[in-house]
Design brief:
This protein is mostly helical. It has one domain. It has helices at residues 3-7, 15-24, 29-110, 112-120, 122-142. The longest helix is centred in the middle third of the chain and has 82 residues, at 29-110. 0% of the residues are buried.
C-alpha cells in the first residue's frame, strides 16, 4: 500500500476497501474481517475517549493556572477589606472609650457632689469603668 492510502483510508484500494473485500470473501476470512472491523471500532472509541480525557486535563490545567494567577489578587483584596473593617472597629471602640472617659472626667471635675461620691466609692467606680471597657471590647471583638 502507498503511504497516501494510509492517510485516507476511504480511497479505492485503501484499508477500508481491503477490509470490506476481506469481509465479503467468505469463510474464514469474513469472520476475521468482521473481528478486525470490531477492533477498529474499539480503537476509535478508545482514541475518542483519550481525546476527551486529554481535553479535560487541558481545561483543568488552564483553570488551575488562572486560579494560581488570580489567588494573590483575591487574597490582597480580601485582606484589604478585612483590615479596613478591623481598623474601623478599633477606632470606634477607642473613640467611644475616650469620649466616655472624658465625659466621666468632666462630670467629676465640675460637680462637687460627684467628686464626693467618687471619693467615697472610688474603688467601685474604677471597677465599673474597667468592666465597661472590657464589655465594649468584647462586643467589638464579636462583630464581623
Amino acid at each position: 500500500m502507498k503511504e497516501s492510502e494510509w492517510e485516507n483510508p476511504f480511497v479505492k484500494g485503501g484499508p477500508q476497501d481491503l477490509l470490506e473485500q476481506l469481509i465479503s470473501s467468505g469463510y474464514p476470512w469474513g469472520i476475521l474481517g468482521k473481528r478486525l472491523k470490531a477492533i477498529d471500532e474499539q480503537f476509535k472509541d478508545v482514541t475518542n475517549q483519550y481525546s476527551e480525557i486529554h481535553d479535560a486535563i487541558e481545561a483543568l490545567n488552564k483553570s488551575v493556572t488562572q486560579i494560581r494567577e488570580n489567588t494573590p489578587k483575591m487574597i490582597r483584596n480580601i485582606l484589604r477589606d478585612e483590615v479596613g473593617s478591623l481598623q474601623n472597629r478599633w477606632l470606634i471602640g477607642a473613640g467611644s472609650l475616650i469620649i466616655g472617659a472624658s465625659g466621666f472626667f468632666l462630670a467629676v471635675i465640675t460637680s462637687s457632689s460627684v467628686w464626693g461620691v467618687l471619693q467615697e466609692y472610688g474603688v467601685v467606680a474604677g471597677i465599673l469603668c474597667m468592666v465597661a471597657a472590657a464589655a465594649t471590647f468584647a462586643f467589638i471583638g464579636r462583630q464581623k
